[in-house]
Amino acid sequence: MNWRGRWGRRLAGLGVRGVGLLLFLALWEAAPRLGWVNSTYMSPPTAVARALYLLSRRGELGPHFLISLQRVAAGLLVSTLAGVFFGIFIGYFRRLELYLDLLFQSFRQMSAFAHFPVFILLFGLGELSKTIIIFWASLWPILLNTCSGVKNADPVLIRSARSMGASRSFIFRKIILPAAAPEIFTGIRLGGSYCVMAVVAAEMIGATSGLGYLVLYSQETFNVAEMYAGIVSLAVLGLGLNSALHACESRFTSWRRDIRTGE
Amino acid sequence: MFKVRADRVGRCFPIRGQEGNRDILRVLEEFNLDIREGEFLSLLGPSGCGKSTFLNILAGLDDLDQGSILVDSEELKKHSFDRGMVFQSYALLPWRTVLENLEIGLEIRRVPRRERRETARRYLRLVGLSAFAHQYPHQLSGGMRQRVAIARVLAYRPNLLLMDEPFAALDAQTRESLQIELLRIWEADRKTIVFVTHSIDEAIILSDRVAVMTARPGRVKEIMEINLPRPRSEDIRNSLEFARVRQAVWLLIRDEVGKTRQSLRIRA
Ligand SMILES: Nc1ncnc2c1ncn2[C@@H]1O[C@H](COP(=O)(O)OP(=O)(O)OP(=O)(O)O)[C@@H](O)[C@H]1O
Ligand SMILES: [Mg+2]
Fold this sequence. Notes:
With 263 residues, chain A is mainly alpha-helical.
């Protein structure tokens, strides 16, 4: 298949998937212009696009975007390291999971946002508490998915290797870890989207920068178009992060590609 | 010379009885079996009589409670580079290509990479799947997967090959062709094979001896020598000797399967 053909097909695919989005944008444009909703509270997409353009020309959008991205990246990095490490540990020693299960389930079910005031009390309003908030929100899906991936490694694969005299460490490195990889990546992707949610909340409390701050600040100053510009930027951040993680995932688990698409 | 000598082996599992009370399931009891160096021995017996349990113990995957097992006149070791097991469910690593799957046993033994590749290719050729070296297991049919699993364990070159109903999940034609293929490979180098199956025909066609087990608690009830000439082919199914042995084995098994049924009926 030639290069242009592949990209052509990708664009066509994007076109099909974008139908819903285009319809939504049209509706959004029409609503304030035709007076269905009060245009003071809802700017049409064209106005939002203009606000985006003006914001970036004034050099404000870029820094806000970057600082949010940086916070998300830092939080996700730490939660990935910690979540994968402890998830493997707990999944490998099943007994441990028995003791910790109820604790973890309660933490997971509790909204991460409920812990924000606690972190602010403990760590103040600075960068540290923001990173911890993001870390906390994304830790649980990563930890629990890693744990279940390690636990669900097919026992017959392990028995087959053991019958040939494989050591514990060999089985762990060459069988349990690769078997768990798909679930670990699912956890990281889930964690990534929790990060993007958490960063908004973190930046709405005592921050002076970031997209969350931009949204709240423009709302407070009645700069409605800029508020929507901030929201749209957050969506872009989330989509970008997700597709980056997705690309990373398919690189590591390429053997599953044709299972997923059913060949 | 015996490869394996199982002497009064016993194995039981703690289970929950009918009223949820603690109970003990005696799976193997007074299990005696001598396996000769280089022979092809099949284990036949009613379902649940402990065939897999015995194979697992031999493979170092399970412990015995009583008795002893000698391998090459030494106490059975839990860890050894001398055994390999083939399972009904193939047990191929889905994230590795066929060739990489063949290498896993050699990796365990720390064979250098180049030699690993070469050996893997050679054994893949032996089972006629060279064209599929770079496919993933899910891209193969069941019969091809089991060929890969067999090639994998052969590439590892164990002196004791354990096979737990390897062909049970395959259709009749694939099964017969794999039996003949296994015979051809085995007749070339005659490593000891312990082969568990439910098929009397399969056991007779493949084996030097067939050990028939009793219902649980399982022990060896009788051993039949199969004196059909080698190399064997599909045609021996039509021989008189085959029919005679088949009848004898069938009678032995019928009684034991009857006992299993009865005990199940009493429980139900
Ligand atoms: N880990 C275990 N815990 C409890 N019971 C077990 C365990 N392993 C096996 N058993 C029981 O031991 C008995 C024998 O099992 P085994 O798998 O050896 O039978 P089998 O002869 O291979 O049967 P089949 O022909 O159906 O494969 C069964 O009743 C099984 O329920
Ligand atoms: Mg069995």
